[in-house]
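Just scan my protein:

——
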Amino acid sequence: MKYRRLGKTDLNVSVVGIGTWQYGGEWGKEFTQKEVDGILDLAQEFGVNLIDTAECYGDHLSERFIGDYLSRRKREDWIIATKFGHHFHENFERSRHWRPDEVLNQLDASLKALQTDYIDLYQAHSCTDEEFNNDALWTLLDKQVRAGKIRNLGVSLRTNDYSWQTEKASDYKVGAIQVVYNRIDTAPEKSIFPAAQEQNLGVLARVPLASGFLSGKYKPGAFFGDNDVRSKTNEDQINRVLTKVEAIAASEVPEGVPMSSWALSWCLKHPAVTSVIPGCKNTKQVEMNAMAAEFASQDHPQSI
């Protein structure tokens, strides 16, 4: 495994982390604590130290799985990133909650679910520019940093159209951003990455496998059940993406290299990207994802 400083923060993160949206039950599978323990234990064996979650991956469900795990392990071995701004409801619906008092309640609920006294990276989750541009909110968050509940602040951008939040990040003492970036969606290269590099912001690349399509295991015509968020995507759009993936696999992926490992390392070669945070449904995927570190650039400017 390789490690990089997450921008201007004090966090040294593994170049491959673990995204945990799937633990909330929206990706076609419900998890048990034993399965989560096995995934995280193996990830640690491969040198992974970064877990990304959110209060609305289930109603703190993902956080509770992680908290149960942490309660039986060394907390200091892990860098925990979570998010705020939403509340999970039945049928995978979410409501938005951005008032300072609501965010403070969310923070305390996340700390309880995670069974920890502090969060390493607390991220505004898919906020609008109006929700972001709120001095009272950031004043509240700064107080929590000084109180020791939060080590660093971040922003998980709603979409790749929200470059303004990246440009203003340092004004609110934000040290890292999270953005959708993969071989299919390269939009951040245009304006988000330059703004991040100018401010020395850490960059977490989410959806680095394009919702699993860059894993190489899906073909055009793939079907996803009602309990899988991908079922909400237009079928024609999915088939267009999978057709493009087939072309990439044939022309860009070296022979003998798993496509998922290649796709993650492709993200890591951009000098703005600190770490990728793919989801893992099983231990085999943990191994494939961790292999990406072997192909990551040795001369990355943030490498440690």
